[in-house]
Amino acid sequence: MLELAVAHALFRRYPKYSEGRLAKIRSHVVSRASCAEVAHELHLSARLAEQASGLPPEELERLKQNRNVLAALLEAALAALFLEHGFEAIEGAVIAAFSGRIEYALTSHVDHKTELQEALARAGRQVSYSVLEVEGPPHERHFRCAATVDGEQAGAGEGRSKKEAEQEAAREAFERLGLETALG
Questions:
Q1: Any idea what DSSP says for residue 168?
Q2: Which residues pair with 145 in a beta bridge?
Q3: Which of 73, 107, 141 is the last residue of a domain?
Q4: Which of 99, 97, 32 is nearest to 66 (CA)?
Q5: Residue 179 has pLDDT above 80, yes or no
Q6: For 147, phi and psi rounded to 5 degrees?
Q7: 183 in a structural domain
Q8: In terms of pTM, does the model score above 0.70?
Q9: Could you tell me the CATH number of the domain that includes residue 172?
Q10: For residue 65, what pLDDT is reported?
């Protein structure tokens, strides 16, 4: 339902954008990170805390901060609203809730890995990623990853997930290599 609402809004608002660009924007907007951000903006973690019973305070606090939990909570709330009210009744509110994420995706390189891969492919080159370091307990991991181009480390990045660290490594490699985006 979320993907449909966002795709519908993007297609209506930006009819001249290519299918590929719209798909990249939609992909970012409906990502786990974006869903967690919107859940935070809607204070869903506070609502989770109000409804929780029998959990130790430290466990509840950990759940309230967990990106996966927040994203799943938002997705469950959207599904319940959809089942109760139908798509047309909630589409506008969904788009309003995600409007900040849409604007961000329109003005930022949100998928650095794809941008880097596409730019390198145009030049007949490739990128690979490797994990340089993993720290912390399973529920609080911190990753450091590298983007390697032509056998040399072109960028490094850190993040709370492997994917986040790889995105940062790709962003750094993109800048260091002075590549141009396919979007202009």
A1: H
A2: 131, 157
A3: 107
A4: 32
A5: no
A6: -105, 120
A7: no
A8: no
A9: 3.30.160.20
A10: 82
Q: How many domains does the chain have?
A: 2
Question: Any alpha helices (H) in the chain, and if so which ranges?
Answer: 2-13, 19-29, 32-41, 44-51, 57-65, 67-85, 87-107, 112-122, 162-177
Which residues constitute the domain of residue 60?
Answer: 2-107
pLDDT at 27 over 90: no
Output the DSSP codes for 138-165: GGG-EEEEEEEETTEEEEEEEESSHHHH
Residue 163 has pLDDT above 80, yes or no: yes
Same domain, 95 and 71: yes
Choosing from 60, 88, 107, the residue where a domain stops is 107
Residue with tokens 């509840």: 60
Per this entry, what is the length of the chain?
184
For tokens 């995600």, name the residue.
98
Token pair in block for residue 151: 């056998």
Q: What is the overall mean pLDDT for the chain?
A: 89
3-class secondary-structure state, position 56: coil
Give the bridge partners for 70, in sequence order: none
Provide the pLDDT for residue 184.
39
Per-residue pLDDT, 168: 93
30 lies in the same domain as 97: yes
User: Which pLDDT score is estimated for 183?
Assistant: 42
